[in-house]
Amino acid sequence: MGYPLRILDGMREEHLVAVYDRLPLTVECGRGCYLFDAAGRRYLDMASGIGVNAFGYSNPRITAALTEQAGRCVHTSNLVSHPYQEELARELCRISGLDRAFFSNSGTEAMEAALKAVRSRSRSLDPTKTRLVSLERSFHGRTLGSLSVSGQAKLRRRFEPLDRAVDFIRPNDQEALAAVVTKATAAVILEPVLGEGGIRPLETEFLRQARELTKRLGALLVADETQCGLGRTGKYFGYQWAGIRPDIVVTAKPLAGGLPLGATLFTEEAAKHLPLHSHGTTFGGGPLACRVALECLRLLEETLPGIADRARQFRSRLDGLARRHSVVTQIRSKGLMFGLELSRPGRPFVVAALERGLLVNCTRETVLRLLPPYIVTRDEIDRAVEILDLTFSAAPAGPPPRCRGPRRLPSP
Ligand SMILES: Cc1ncc(COP(=O)(O)O)c(C=O)c1O
């Protein structure tokens, strides 16, 4: 059958499975909020590696922790212990209000651990509890379990049959929630802010109702904080805006500063349902990722108080942008998560913005999504909005700004 030969920014992809529709940018290195290509052109990255690089590229503290630990021990396996896993679990429990952590390597794996705990609990407590409740437009990952509870037909269709015991309801539909959660419900699974679904914050009342119903009917509440957690909304976790405590919390993306690390957090009660030998991983929670994650949590502690302020500045500049360009029909945001609903497909705007030196991405076809690093400055916010302004005005695209001198890349 053969894949189409793809040539991207001079890079041929002949040996890669063609699942990514990449932008024409080949990255040489990154520094702060900027990426650089081999020609020294710089790109302001307001997607932060899809919410991963919260503390910027080449952050000196992350680099120091990483290089120091790389010289000591990268991997151990979970046959033995190392000092950083328990310490990291303790920190995550402190900031989340939960009791125990299981470490894996990605958001989708962290969700799988949650789903397995839910299933194990139902089987042991009440085997008639077979149903899961999730939200339309939600996204929980690409492994088969996570895909089963993701409310996006486009992603699911090719991989059917998936677990059919899932009821999808509209986000923030309190009536539907009240109707669908019954004694047969094993868990309600939700993202406090739907990320891939187009930046849609759940209302406080909806989150509280989900907590109340699950408690009353003996189901678990699972909060997927992969995209909206760890400071992105201005609190450690998105559910904290509603003053609730879920039974299980899924987190990943910025946790280890770009190293793969996921964590599933459990209440003591929920953790009991993953007993000895019931789950595990080779790489999850290794010393390198955990050591770097501890440094990231220290950085988060220092950065968190400023996030609300930065978010307000960004939002007000984007509101101005929307007033100037009718193609932007709505702006949704929570903290440093922004979705610009457009009246047209967003991809051409993403490409045009990249040509001017700004990296953003598009989700749900018509939503420009911005997930800026937490360290974004006022000047960088102004620059990002300026480039979007030019892009929407369809002014002729100039080349992205150059660093001084050809091929002068920032030293690592
Ligand atoms: C809410 C949510 N859950 C799960 C995932 C899957 O994470 P990963 O790609 O690390 O498996 C994502 C990824 O974007 C996400 O946004």
Offer a quick outline of the entry.
This protein has helices at 48-51, 60-70, 83-96, 107-125, 144-148, 153-156, 174-180, 204-217, 268-271, 287-324, 347-355, 378-392, and strands at 6-8, 11-13, 27-31, 34-37, 42-45, 100-104, 131-135, 166-169, 185-190, 193-194, 200-201, 220-224, 248-251, 262-266, 328-334, 337-342, 358-359, 361-363, 367-370. It has 412 residues and is an alpha/beta fold. The chain binds pyridoxal-5'-phosphate.
Describe the protein in words:
By secondary structure, the protein is α/β, with parallel strands linked by helices. It has two domains: 6-58 and 304-392, Aspartate Aminotransferase, domain 1, CATH 3.90.1150.10; 73-285, Aspartate Aminotransferase, domain 2 (3-Layer(aba) Sandwich). 35% of the residues lie in helices and 19% in strands. It contains twelve helices and 19 strands. Strands 6-14-13-12-9-7-8 form a seven-stranded mixed β-sheet, sandwiched between helices. Strand 18 and strand 19 (367-370) form a beta hairpin. It is globular and about 60 Å long. The two termini are 43 Å apart. Mean pLDDT is 94; it is low at 1-7, 395-399 and 403-407. Bound molecules: pyridoxal-5'-phosphate (PLP). Pyridoxal-5'-phosphate binds next to helix 4.
- Note the main sheet: 7 strands, mixed
Would you count the extended β strands for me?
A: 19
Q: Give the DSSP E fraction (strand runs of 2 or more residues).
A: 15-25%
Task: Output the CATH topology of the largest domain.
Answer: Aspartate Aminotransferase, domain 2
Count of helices? 12
Note the gap between the termini.
Answer: 43 Å
Strand order of the largest sheet: 6-14-13-12-9-7-8
Q: What is the helix fraction of residues, given as a range?
A: 25-40%
CATH class of the largest domain: Alpha Beta
